[in-house]
Amino acid sequence: MDGKNANPTILNASDLPTRRQAQRKKVTSPLTSGLVPAYARDPFVGNKDTDFSNSDESEDDSVREPIDEQEIYDLIATISDPEHPLTLGELAVVNLQHIKVTDDRSAIISNVLVELTPTINHCSLATVIGLGVRVRLEQALPPRFRLDVRIREGTHATGEQVNKQLNDKERVASALENETLMGVVGKMLETCK
Amino acid sequence: MLSPRLYILNVAKDPTEASRISRESAKQIQDKELKLLDLVQSLGDYLTDDDKTTRAKAIGYLSSVLGYLDPKTLSRQQVAVIAQFLCDRLEDETGLKETSQGLFALQKSSRFGKEEAILVSSAICKVDLQKHPQGTRFAVLSLIDGLMANQRDALRAIGGKFVTGFAELVGGEKDPRNLMIVFSVVNVILVEFDIVPHIEILFDVVYCYFPITFKPPPDDPYGITAQDLKLRLRECIASTKYFAGHVFPQLIEKLDSTSLSVKKDVLQTIAACALSYGPQTISTHSTQLWDAVKFEVLNSTEEDELATEALSVIRAIAETLSFGLKFSTPTVSPLARYLSGIVKECLKLLQEPQQKQAKSAGKILSKSATASTVAHTFIVEKTMPALLLIHGDADGLAKQRALMEILNLLFQSTLQIFGTWGDLTAEQVLPNPFTEYTDKLFEMYSQALMGSLREELSLRITALKGLVLLCRTRRLFQENEIGMVVQYLDQVLLEVKEKEEIKELALQGLKDISKIKPNLIMDITFPAFMAQLPDSEKEADPSKPYTATLEALAKLSLGRSVFQVLLTRLLNKLDTVLRGKSGPMYPQAILSTLLYVLQKKPESSQEDIKTYFTRLVVPLLTKTIIPVVDNSSEFQDFRILTDDSILDVTGRLFNIIIRSLGFEEQINVSRQLINIFVLGIPSDYIPITHAGIVARDFKPLQQAANKDQARCTILFTYALAGLRREVALTTLSLPGLIQQNVELATQTAHPAQRMAHVYLVALLANKWMTKPGDSDLLQKITVNLLESVSSSILGSPEYDNLVGQKLQIVLWITKAIVVRGDKYGMEVAEEVVKLLGDKNYGQTASKGFAVLLGNDEFIAKNNYAILRPLTKQKIFTFCVPKIVEGFRVADTTTKPNYLVALSNILRNTPPAVILPELGRLLPLLLQSLDLPDPNVKSATIETLLITVTESADAMKEHISSLSARLLNTCTNREENPPRIRSAALRCLRTFPGAIRTELLLPYRGQVIRSLATVLDDPKRSVRKEAVDCRAKWYSLDEPEY
Fold this sequence. Notes:
heterodimer, A: 193 residues, alpha+beta, three-stranded mixed sheet, globular, B: mainly alpha, Leucine-rich Repeat Variant, 54 helices, chromosome partition (chain A), MIP18 (chain A), MIP18 family-like domain-containing protein (chain A), FSCA_dom_sf (chain A), MIP18-like (chain A)
């Protein structure tokens, strides 16, 4: 078992921090749903109220919702691990408290720092996982963000080396040219929700 | 004798004629006009013919005749002679097929005996079968199959010689149809013959086909699938325990295969063998098998097919080893040896219950525990002490939870073995081994559910699930323990701060328990929930919202007896609330609760629903009406019942109950209601104290009626909606009533009241204005109304609200008659299309199409409305071309009307109708994406979404313009609210996958670039859609498999 962990500890998916749940749970009581009174459904009455009945804050564009740690976490926690059919969130490779975001629209550059915790400290796939996270964020974040994806200090035997690879533009670019590698990364990103 | 000659001449070119000839010969033999032996002799010359085919055809003639003979025709001696004759012919291999067919026919003869069977089978086994084509082999194998069916004893008597002969005969067979026969013959041999000396040979015959990798050809005439072959082969392999020594090592070796389907086949075959070889044989292989298959489970993931198969193997072994063990598992028994090994290994893995393999270990234990009652007892007794210890030593809640998940798996096995309360199956004789641990488990699970922080959601959910499982298990928990669990679930459900996820489970738990112990729900849950309901809105505690309590009550009350209790209690509560001078919200919520339950009742309980007429409809009617005519009655505080929102719910209750009444009952109800609402005649429904006053003063349909009275029309309309159209409204003058309501509808500014009048008109028009002449009457009313529209268009440049109202009523009347196929309806529809071009009334006309095509809850099938099929299609084909044309010539101010009309039509028409027309509509749809109205845009995007997924071909030419517009929609925040931006992104996301990649690739770069700005949208939900959409387009160039 060199560089692989066949029996890692797994977090329960429903215990992971996420904003998705909260959004999905905007349910109206079944007692009242389907009980829109007949008169309120008159097609002739301006239907702003009916079609946009639950217009709330999320419909108001003047309230900007900043990109925050949770949003980054939701983007990358559902990436699959290349060797287990489990997500990086479930394996605690990605942790909410190890993400730092400064979303400052007045500055030219905003920053995202993601620190990864490999399941074992000689994990041979740490670089690939890091690359997957990087690719996902590059595709999902506006270009004004500068990405820093690294291995959390003290969690990997060759962390320094991996970090160098992950944040070296040229090396990343050449990795992205490598078809086999991109195949693996593509598979990892398939489970992204 | 001509027949042989004729047959031989015809058989190749005209088989029907040939078989007619042989059928005739057979008849002649049966009628004794021809002797069989003469017929055989007449073949003589042909049988020595130099041409091989002629010889074969001659035998074919004989075989064909034999096939047509009645099985009783031939004498013992004739059978013997023919059998000998045909067996001799076997040496001439050219006619092997025909000879076999003849023998096949012969062996069906009732006088075909043991000697003939021995003769034939010995002869046939000498044939060198594999050099013949598959059709010939099929004939030979069918013969053997026939002998096996009819002469099995004879074959068995031959013994070893037949077994080896047959093995040699079929060796190398590859044709699937022939193999199906081979396998079934071998299966009989394996089960019924003395095979011990021939195990090796038979094993080789069978096992060489494993695993089956056959793929049926596309035009396979026999329809034999790989699965058919697999199953038959598996039956052979599993049919004799003597194979065990050969089969298991081989199968285990094949587990290393990289093919999923092979591995699955291997595991299923092992399971079949494990179930059939018997305990003695399996006991010598159990350890070896466990060692081989356990990895399939331990290294598996959720929902792994192979893991499921491997678990079945593990269980099958335990099941077979349990054979004969009724009460206990002696430590020296093979079952104990087998299970001990499993338990030991699993417990080792369970020391760290959070690790990946722990869950697999739990599954192994729980699956093995379903093998038999003794296996269950053994596993529970051997694992529980250790598992409790691990739980006790766990240093964190997550670890405790993981272990409890494992325990829950074991509870499931227990439920499976011991059943649930009230099950009809016989109870187990053995005591449940968990009984010893119930106190401990109850305490541990209660503590986890009720004693942990509310935020420990997954721990509490695990505990909740476990408790419900334990409650359901027959004779495990005491009644008071189940009662406690019910209380916990009540608390979870009533607590506002609890998350929806756990509340749903609590509710489900209560529903489960209500099936086995309904008394506990009535005695504990109901009083607890009712106590939560405040007596007035003012007393309502915002931390305990009554809506949530009512919702839970409603969901628990779908059963009849429970609903009876709910009904009584809620009606009492409603009285209390009303007497406390309530606002409309709380009473409306109470009535909605009752409505919810009635709506959820299945069709089958219609009978049930109508019993509520006297308990609900009559009292609600009284309590609503009396206060509006007498403000000094005992119901004076009930006037709030005439609030719009309450009247609507009361009306729906009337509707749902009235429509479940029988025909006769409806006649009576209709009379009474007409007396009350229209005629002013005293009714039995109103208490005697007020019947007179109501008759005199309650005039909701009069011009002069006060507002509260007028609003009560809502109840009348809902009630009328529920009546069958066959219920004649004889006491009413329909034209007068319609005219009256048309006027009332145009005069009132009150939306709820106006809709009540409008629907009243529509209902009467649809269900009761169906006699000849009625249509003219409706036409007259409609024409009148339309005239005021056209005179307004000519006479005034301004929009006149009254005229607008009249146009609306026209559309409702049109709706009512067009759905029942009235031709005049279409004429009006055409007028309405013309009106789209009017700057004042075009907008109303455009919305009218939502009325014409929309699904309406009043004019609906369950309300006995007259609905002709395909109405929507008709309106679509009739109006859409006119709209497309009108749009083309319209000026810019009225163009939007056409698009709105179109979007209303599209939204309400089945995609199958729209799709063929799409080519013509797409340009319009694209233009409506440029309109500022978000509703039109939203409807258009919805339509496009369906189009892309269902008819991508129609989109091909428009990818460029459509993607550009969608990108513009999601990037332009000024014009498009977040909802529309999200919809546009969702639509754009469906392109990859629905449309061929090479058509999309040219736009890939553009889409990905443009979406980069949407990734910075101020709204999180839009960003999320953008990310998903972009990911789809990014993955476009990846090779598709």
